[in-house]
């Protein structure tokens, strides 16, 4: 033993956090055991080891009690023998005598080395246990070392953890040097040190991954109320926003779905449904059964059952494959959910009052009746107003201008207007006739016979024909050539 050991113990105290006094006590105890083993001392003999921290020297002392009659010489000494060593000894005193062997330094050094190594391991295990026992429920990043059908060993940096087969995601392949995130499920203290058991199927892993990806959850603006998960297949997450200006579902989905896609990729493309949590249980059940559309929800507080009615074409969607959607919704809400289609509910007569068209409340009916009662009075008032205006027209017709047209006039029939008056009111000029625009064609005056007068009398009737559409000009034969 020398000062190098003291320096090594000081460095261990700084690096590993192991107390120097604890190591020295352990070394002294180990040296006592080594002395009894190597030098034939009885296990019942009392031996004390003195370790000098300044010089590094080790001395061994045997201890015996002063008695009148000696029964065991290894632990007792007579008063006469004790007074030969020192006259001041009395009965009951302890006599110490140095029994350090000549070659005890080598044995002490080997023993001290083994004790220090053992204490370091124990201290590290204790430190690891103290660290990870408080981290149950956390998510850690680990590297897969090796995997088989029973378990996978994962390196967490300072300790090796175990991922049992029951906590593996079905269908997920674990290869060496693969980095994944794991949920710390349990920490045990065993004789071999702390055992850390991980999980990839726990719902807490999904919750923690969203906390890592969504800043609004970290700040507390968005809260994850509940999680229901079937690892490797599908999960549902109910979120709630404390800030009315923040959409909880949109915050978890992210821009173009980048946040939820990061979580999906970490869990091996597991499908995740994010729904909004509601204080109203009926609305929450409707959201939990999404993407199916729920028409009505009736809750039974005593049985804690939510009876739901969905459209006939969405019954299979609400139940899901092998009942998965309904099962996850029940886990998410904490209520048992009974799903029936409109046809089934109608046949059983369970929700007849909900399937019918919703009736107006009594207050609304009373309001409509009151409005109907007021309508005749309003009509009488309008009729009286019209009569007053009609009576006033003959007297004030000369002085007052023509009344303006109301939006909903209820006046006597309007007198027919001439074309000039109509054009002045509407600012529409009268359309010119064909003769006014193109001019009439006059034939040379010739004496007409009675037969010609009869023949010319017929086309005059054709000239009285009114042209309403210019396109008709093409189909009308004016007999211009004949007149010429």
Note down, in words, how this protein is organized.
Helices cover 42% and strands 21% of the residues. With 484 residues, it is an alpha+beta fold. It folds into four domains: 3-128, 2-Layer Sandwich (N Utilization Substance Protein A, Chain:P, domain 4), CATH 3.30.1480; 135-199, Nucleic acid-binding proteins (OB fold (Dihydrolipoamide Acetyltransferase, E2P), Beta Barrel); 212-277, K homology (KH) domain (GMP Synthetase, Chain A, domain 3, 2-Layer Sandwich); 279-378, GMP Synthetase, Chain A, domain 3 (2-Layer Sandwich). The strands form four sheets. The chain has a five-stranded antiparallel β-sheet with strand order 7-6-5-8-9. Strands 1, 2, 3 and 4 form a four-stranded mixed β-sheet that branches. The chain has a three-stranded mixed β-sheet with strand order 10-11-12, sandwiched between helices. It is elongated and about 160 Å long. The N and C termini lie far apart (151 Å).
């Amino acid at each position: 033993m020398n000062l190098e050991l003291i320096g090594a113990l000081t460095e261990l105290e700084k690096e590993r956090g192991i107390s120097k006094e604890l190591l020295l006590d352990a070394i002294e105890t180990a040296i006592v055991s080594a002395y009894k083993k190597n030098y034939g001392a009885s296990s019942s003999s009392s031996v004390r080891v003195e370790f000098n921290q300044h010089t590094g020297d080790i001395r061994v002392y045997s201890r015996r009690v002063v008695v009148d009659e000696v029964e065991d010489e290894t632990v007792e000494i007579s008063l006469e023998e004790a007074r030969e060593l020192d006259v001041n000894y009395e009965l009951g005193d302890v006599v110490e005598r140095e029994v350090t062997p000549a070659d005890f330094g080598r044995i002490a050094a080997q023993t001290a080395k083994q004790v220090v190594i053992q204490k370091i391991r124990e201290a590290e295990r204790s430190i690891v246990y103290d660290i990870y026992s408080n981290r149950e429920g956390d998510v850690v990043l680990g590297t897969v070392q090796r995997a088989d059908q029973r378990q996978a060993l994962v390196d967490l940096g300072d300790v090796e953890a175990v991922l049992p087969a029951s906590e593996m995601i079905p269908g997920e392949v674990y290869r060496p040097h693969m980095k994944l995130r794991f949920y710390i499920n349990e920490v045990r203290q065993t004789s071999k040190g702390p055992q850390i058991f991980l999980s990839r199927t726990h719902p807490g892993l999904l919750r923690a991954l969203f906390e890592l990806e969504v800043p609004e959850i970290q700040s507390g603006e968005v809260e994850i109320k509940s999680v229901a998960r079937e690892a490797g297949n599908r999960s549902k997450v109910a979120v709630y926003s404390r800030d009315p200006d923040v959409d909880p579902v949109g915050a978890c989905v992210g821009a173009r779905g980048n946040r939820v896609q990061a979580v999906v990729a970490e869990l091996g493309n597991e499908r995740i449904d994010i729904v909004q949590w509601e204080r109203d249980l009926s609305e929450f059940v409707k959201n939990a059964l999404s993407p199916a559309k729920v028409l009505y929800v009736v809750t039974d507080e005593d049985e804690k059952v939510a009876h739901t009615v969905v459209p006939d074409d969405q019954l299979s969607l609400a139940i899901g494959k092998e009942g998965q959607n309904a099962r996850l919704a029940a886990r998410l809400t904490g209520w048992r959910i009974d799903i029936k289609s409109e046809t089934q509910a109608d046949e059983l007569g369970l929700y007849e009052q909900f399937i019918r068209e919703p009736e107006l409340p009594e207050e609304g009916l009373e309001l409509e009746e009151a409005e109907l009662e007021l309508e005749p009075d309003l009509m009488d008032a309008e009729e009286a107003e019209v009569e007053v205006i009609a009576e006033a027209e003959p007297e004030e017709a000369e002085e007052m201008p023509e009344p303006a047209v109301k939006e909903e006039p209820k006046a006597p029939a309007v007198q027919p207007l001439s074309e000039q008056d109509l054009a002045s009111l509407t600012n529409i000029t009268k359309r010119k006739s064909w003769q006014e625009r193109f001019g009439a064609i006059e034939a040379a005056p010739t004496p007409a016979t009675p037969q010609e007068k009869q023949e010319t009398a017929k086309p005059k009737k054709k000239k009285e024909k009114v042209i309403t559409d210019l396109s008709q000009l093409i189909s009308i034969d004016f007999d211009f050539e004949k007149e010429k």
